[in-house]
Write a structure and sequence with these properties.
Blueprint: H1 2-9, H2 14-80, H3 82-94, H4 96-109, H5 118-128, E1 132-139, E2 144-149, E3 155-159, H6 166-172, H7 179-196, E4 202-206, H8 210-219, E5 228-236, E6 243-252, H9 254-263, E7 269-272, E8 278-281, H10 284-292, H11 294-298, E9 306-310, E10 314-321, E11 329-335, H12 336-342, H13 344-385, H14 402-440, H15 445-461, H16 465-481, E12 487-489, H17 490-507, E13 512-518, E14 526-528, H18 533-543, E15 551-560, E16 563-570, H19 577-588, H20 600-611, E17 616-622, E18 626-634
Parallel strand pairs: 13-15
Antiparallel strand pairs: 1-2, 1-6, 2-3, 4-5, 5-6, 7-8, 7-11, 9-10, 10-11, 12-14, 15-16, 16-18, 17-18
Amino acid sequence: MLKRIYQTHFKRRLFNKLIVVYSCIALISLVTLSLFTYQFFVRKDMSSMLLEQQRSVDAMNRYFDQKYETSQLLIQQLYQDNVLIRDTVYFLENGYESYLRYRLDTYSESNSFFVRDFHTFYANQFWKDSDLKNIVLVSPRQGFAFMYSDNGVFRKVYPWEVTPDPQFLRDRYPLQSNESKASDVDEMQNEVQDAVKDTDNSIASQHSEEAEEQASLEADKEPSALPYFTVTNRINNPDTLTTSGEIMIDFGIDGIRHRLVDAQQLDSVIVLNEQDQIIYFNNKKMATAYEHNRAELLAMKRNQPLKLILDGIGETYVTLSQTNKLGMTVISMLPSHEVTDRLAGVRTTIGVVTVLCVILVVGIAYVTVIRISRRTQVIVKAMKQVPAGKLDTRINFQQEDELSDIAHSFNHMVNDLSDYINRVYKSELKQKHAELVALQSQIKPHFLYNTLEVIRMRAVAKGAHDVGDMIYNLASIFRHMVKDKTHITLQEEIENCKRYLELTRIRYRDKLQYTIEMDVGLGGYQVMKLSVQPMIENYLVHGLGLERTDNHIWIHVLREADDLIIRIRDNGSGIAPERLQQLQEELSSDDLQDHGSLGIKNVHNRLRILYGDGAGIEIDSIYQEGTTVTIRIPIG
């Protein structure tokens, strides 16, 4: 049955074969395009989400940098105010009671009714930054800590020994309500104090809710309180430069939450302190995955997104950044399934559109092939007419497609072929005319040679040696010009030019000088006869100044790649810009008319006829300064 269908509908029916092939190609193309389209949307959506992920990380880093700058600005303002820094140093070095007596003495000695103290300075800092929670002044030498709180309730002295006072911890972290949580805070505070002691501009992160976070992970709910992160700096005595104590600045985590809301990334951010402990997370599942894959995540390169297989999540894009000045580590995790889940509607749409397009393509395949066949027959018929000599055949298609391009190319080819035949025909006629002129010029040359030789000997006998030299050069030039050869060696052409220049030099009594330079080994190349001499003649006729004695012409012959370059340069009167432009346009033109002269246009045309489009003449001139003519002949 299949064989019968093939014999009936396909074996001798090219159009049916084209329909089947076209339909198969369209089907494969559309399915492939659909797959690539879906992959494109996946990559685009993934790139967008990764970009948002990076923006979230950058927002976090900027937030930490901002808090670092806030703390440094506070320290800078403290040191810039001599009263504040001295009060603070005195307070840390002598204790609170001594400081009160010091302030009373300072006030009694002052003529003002108001004396500034550092209490007002530190209290005002909370108005400048809403994320600022506590400012703690610590004096290890005197063994106390003094804390300012954002609500203004706490401003008192606490004992400060090896471990912080429990009451200090409860006041510093008011969200801790039971003893077990307070003990966890106590332990974490000790670790932070050991890490930041005796360091300048060191950072310590306080995770006061770690136990509650673990409980919330197990209970599948968010932590009930937010931790602080702390920036610690030394306070040095400006006179002795010794360390008087430390200032610890606590910032709340509310700013992180706000930044994440602005970045529209609420489900995948974890923040670690310098000890790689979690101080903030906004997704319980991600925090659990971090604990299970802690070593692998911390071994990642910074700021380079990487796709990992994480326990409990699967394929996940992870970005780990540590570019902020506080040394915080920000981890952002994006599961791959979130992207594919978002594109379920796109998959359905692409599938439906693909099916409809396949049906439409198969439906119009037959009509398309028939139209193409008819237009192809028109092209074939026109192409068969060209070998018969009908060069006026043209194809006129109104449509704009590939067949129209073929038709336009065919028309252009026929035009070029007609122009080429006309040009070659005219070139052959011109070549025959030149050969005829050369033959006519050979009438009785020996008679002319002998006559010139008799005149030369007569001049020598009378002592007119310069006249003899002129006649000798003239005879040599004449002998060279009447040769029936169209090609001579480059050495012969240059020698003829030399005789011509020598004849002119004697004629004008040494008002002309010339220089000929030719690379060794180039003299044996065959060149067109009278290819250089007309350039020299143009200079002698139009550029030579008889009132000058410094007339000079240079002829330089060299080889560049596969081209023989003959460059003729003079210091004559040059060519006016308008005339130069006219000459250059004539040389670039395909017109073969030269009006019978042996000038520049004539030589240029003959060179292109003999050597092809790569040969020809180029002219460059500066008016009243000189002209340079370059002759290029391919020899490769």
